[in-house]
Amino acid sequence: MNEPILVLTDDASDEARGIVDEGLADHGVEQAGQWDARPLYVLARAAVDGHVLGGFICRTSLGLLFIELAFLPRELRKQGLGTRMLRMAETEAVRRGCCGGVLYTISFQAPEFYKRHGWREFGRVPCHPPGTSRIFMTKALS
Predict the structure, then answer these.
(1) Is residue 98 part of a domain?
(2) CA 120/CA 133 separation, integer angstroms
(3) Which domain holds residue 77?
(4) 19 in a domain, yes or no?
(5) What does pTM read for this prediction?
(6) String of b and e for 15-36 (b: at least 16 CB within 10 Å)?
(7) Most exposed residue of 4, 31, 96, 127, measured as fewest CB within 10 angstroms of its CB?
(8) Which of 75, 84, 92 lies closest to 113, judged by CA?
(9) DSSP state letters, 55-123
């Protein structure tokens, strides 16, 4: 077999993503006897036309909720919407059999928001700009 050609890109095709997803799923089944990874989205949509204003992009897998990305526009913050969205994600994760959650945030983003909701820091990695850190957090779900 010839050595594969390596390609560095910032835009993978649906086919490429599918091959990686399927390969990971097959490996997960081989190693853990199962693979139950599923996407989970909690979206805030405009009442008028339904366009997406923000949301939580998550996934569940092997008993854990992973919060990958979260965003609400400034005008929707501090109204309890983020709290409701986080609870929706956590509740659905528990319904799917998850016992815990993992996320990372950036020191200038939302660590205090997550702390108020029972998430605790378990790691910190410095990043740019100086004085900024990625903060890794976890929470037991019940």
Answers:
(1) yes
(2) 15
(3) 36-140
(4) no
(5) 0.87
(6) eeeeeeeeeeeeebeeeeeebe
(7) 4
(8) 84
(9) EEEEEEETTEEEEEEEE--GGGTTSSHHHHHHHHHHHHHHHTT--EEEEEEETTSSHHHHHHTT-EEEE
24 falls within a domain: no
Q: Which amino acid is at 28?
A: G
Q: Is residue 9 part of a domain?
A: no
The Cα 78–Cα 113 span in angstroms is 10
In the chain, the number of structural domains is 1
Distances (CA, A) of 56 to 63, 85, 96: 18, 7, 17
Q: What is the pLDDT along the chain (142 residues), one digit of tens a residue?
A: 899 988 888 888 889 888 888 888 888 788 887 788 899 999 999 999 999 999 999 999 999 999 999 999 999 999 999 999 999 999 999 999 999 999 999 999 999 999 999 999 999 999 999 999 999 999 999 8
Provide CB contacts within 8 A for 92, sequence distance 6+. 40, 42, 60
